[in-house]
Amino acid sequence: MATGTDQVVGLGLVAVSLIIFTYYTTWVILLPFIDSQHVIHKYFLPRAYAVAIPLAAGLLLLLFVGVFITSVMLKSQKVTKKAQ
Question: Which ranges does the record mark as transmembrane (predicted)?
């Protein structure tokens, strides 16, 4: 069973994810249909970042996963050599 702290952290993560999803969806899907002179455009980054930010995040994620897998494989290889 989850503790109270776990539930609060989980709720916070869900809330942050929902905010990011709503912002990005509005930015990418709805904003192109709103007049470019409308005041709502000042609350959003330029559209070029709509591709650049997820691309950079994906590359960082792949880099992190690659480094993690490499370090696990190297540690496993050291343990195997010691056992022999």
Answer: 12-34, 49-74
